[in-house]
Design a protein that fits this description.
This protein is α/β, with parallel strands linked by helices. About 55% of the residues lie in helices and about 15% in strands. The chain has one domain: P-loop containing nucleotide triphosphate hydrolases (Rossmann fold, 3-Layer(aba) Sandwich), CATH 3.40.50.300. Helix 1 crosses helix 9 and helix 2 crosses helix 5. The protein is globular and about 50 Å long.
Length: about 190
């Protein structure tokens, strides 16, 4: 039976770097954020989001993600309402994706909010990617071209890293790419 390995970490920790390395190793990786983005742009889900947040979240008939992020990352209740629309759709999509991967020993489900969404319950093991807070802030500011305050606001809306460590089976320290790859290779040999 195919095992599901959860991959998570706070914003700027390097989950995508780890996921890409696993993909290079021919391990199937489901990127929940990418799929959520696609699902968000489906007419059915877009209409639910507009119903909840109003037409101001639309730009050229698509969800303006930056505008929506400003709303939900400053209001935990709005974030929970948005997640209640998107998470069930992502869960359905993942189940369908998994059916096509049953020949693999294990697959990886990458999600920034694996614990917050409850998706960790479906995983056989969890890998947490970590990095020092300042490194995470700098990476995110550079990647998303946003202000430090916006990054901190997003970090404050995620589960504390200490809590994630306690819930994880494996922790990858993502400070240097070379060391991260060594840690991953050791873990893959173990898995």
């Amino acid at each position: 039976m195919t095992k599901i390995i959860g991959l998570t970490g706070g914003i700027g920790s390097g989950k995508t770097t780890v996921a890409n390395y696993l993909i290079e190793k021919n391990i199937p990786v489901y990127i929940a954020d990418d799929e959520a983005r696609k699902i968000t742009n489906s007419k059915r889900v877009t209409s639910k989001i507009v119903e909840l947040f109003g037409n101001q979240v639309l730009e050229n008939d698509k969800i303006n993600r930056a505008f929506l992020a400003n709303i939900v990352f400053s209001d935990k209740e709005k974030l929970a309402q948005l997640n209640a629309i998107i998470h069930p759709e992502v869960k359905k999509h993942f189940k369908k994706w998994l059916k096509s991967k049953l020949d693999y020993k294990f697959v990886v489900k990458e999600s920034a909010i694996l614990f917050e969404s409850g998706s960790y319950k479906d995983c056989d093991a969890i890998i947490l990617v970590t990095a020092p807070l300042e490194t995470r802030i700098e990476r995110t500011m550079k990647r998303d071209n946003i202000a430090r305050e916006s990054v901190l606001q997003r970090i404050n809306n995620q589960m504390a890293e200490e809590e994630k460590i306690l819930k994880s089976d494996y922790v990858i320290q993502n400070i240097s790419l070379k060391d991260t790859h060594i840690q991953l290779d050791q873990l893959l040999n173990y898995l």
